[in-house]
Amino acid sequence: MRFIVGTPEPGKPNAIFLVQGDRAFNLTQAHPGIGHDLMRLITDPALLARIRAEGMGQPTLPVTAIQPALPVAHPGKVICLGLNYVDHVKEGGYEIPTYPALFIRTLSSLMPAGAPMIRPACSERLDYEAELMVLIGRGGRHIDEARALDHVFGYTVFNDGSIRDYQRKTHQWTPGKNFDATGAIGPVVVTPDELPPGATGLRIQTRVGAEILQDANTADMMWSVARTIATLSEYTTLEPGDMIAMGTPPGVGHARTPPRWLRPGEVVEVEIEGIGICASPVHDEVRAPLQTAPKTPATAH
């Protein structure tokens, strides 16, 4: 199954849509209580099975009419792998890791596909990173790798927009990976039955117009989805709705000569075969004018 969370009417509450081809069916309208993001479907396998059996009903609307939202409005954890493709490790000048490089994304750094990716006022070094993203369905700790894929609810597309000079300011990558509205997710979430096991063997690309910036295959990941879930669950309890970003292939902007940064006015597209396209227009940050306290009139004595 394929899902999009969003709304066809700006300003109206989000809904869950079941997608078939270029049409979408409003599940939130058809199933009262299902909610406004995927969490109810993630945590209620019986409801998911019923929707699978019922399929799409009428009426439907074009997928293009939906303004996407995050598939999970408030994920508990968004864990990202930093170095998961050998050629990307090499282009960044790192040693091949024996344990995945991990960092956390905050909610304010994320935005849905279609929303602007913001180049901050303090830097022009906004880079792109095409990534497979995993949505955890069944949680757990100390998950065995052989059964780890049973814990996956679905897969989506992620663009891990990175501010490279801030990423290099510290040995920890937190600043460069957490600027507001730099991590684009979605719009489609695909359940595992529609993809190869672990979403392996899928072409993954980044494009700006006709310019192909990254072009690789998820089969090239050093840590598979199953191995990653098992590894992460050694130190943390994975919970329903958690998201895992699986790292980017080679071709990122900072490794090019000269560097290829994203510029306002461009639309950057990340596509993963069998899942879809995450497109983001690039905008400059608009800084709010400084607010000053009103002057207090002088008091006569």
UniProtKB/TrEMBL annotation:
Protein name in UniProt: FAA hydrolase family protein
Gene3D superfamilies: Fumarylacetoacetase-like, C-terminal domain
Secretion signal, residue range per the UniProt entry: none
Keyword Metal-binding recorded: yes
Pfam families, A to Z: FAA_hydrolase
Domain of life, per lineage: Bacteria
The keyword Coiled coil is annotated on this UniProt entry: no
Keywords in alphabetical order: Hydrolase, Metal-binding
Family note: Belongs to the FAH family.
Listed GO MF terms: hydrolase activity
Occurrences of domain Fumarylacetoacetase-like C-terminal (ranges): 77-282
